[in-house]
Input
Amino acid sequence: MPHNPVTGDRADRALPPLSPRVEVALLARALFRQGYNDFNTGHMTYRQRDDTFLVLDSGVGWNEQRPSDVVSVDADGNRLEGAGEVTPAIILHLEYHKLHEDCIWTVHQHPEYATIWAAAGRIPSVYSQRGASLLEDIGLYEEYEGGVDEWPAANAAARAIGEKKAVLLRNHGVFVAGSDVAQVFSRCVALENRCRVAWRVEALGGGMEMPEPAQRSLLAVNRDRFGFRSPGLWEWAVRQELREDPTLEAEVSGPSPSAPSSSRT
Ligand SMILES: [Zn+2]
Output
């Protein structure tokens, strides 16, 4: 039986085995194309089975991250392996992970459109299918005070984010969580899509918000059939990144990722 109701088992669409470091670098590059393109200012974490975390090299842009740049840190942010730079702001993510033990991935960036809504202090209405996939997972964190690179501030922010999975940080950017790379990528894309479409609709003079029953119907499909993953979206993004930068091929090898995942984060 096909493992994916859209892409099926077609061998030409299957991904090669991706190591955890490869997934981190490819996620950064793929998100850069989706509006998460504020140079190097974002960060992400990928929890490993031993409760260490893979993080980006904050010294380079998201579109030039390489698997060999990815850094391993412990739960307190101490470098374990890797030569890349680690931003002090990573502690927001580490605090969030302490509060959500089933969370595997977190992403923070300043995407083009979501940052506008974050500055406005408003959650955009739903005008399209992709934007509907967030429904109760979208949130707004209004108490942001300019930095989370101190543990108390990071803890307060992580607590305020709570159980939301796609959060607008007031006057700052976004914070997105997921249980695997396909899920967190889908959420990030859905959040920026929702913000972009709403911006354009309202710039046009307004539009018709999707009725809540339709939103809930779409959400049920997204949750029950796809586990909050847009079918084929991550695979499409990986194929694109490997096409765009053939030099990555040399680093895309090795065993499958060994990190844990949960079904609902
Ligand atoms: Zn930021």
Notes: The pocket of zinc ion is lined by residues 41, 108, 110, 172-173 (CB under 6 Å). The first strand starts at residue 43 and ends at 47.
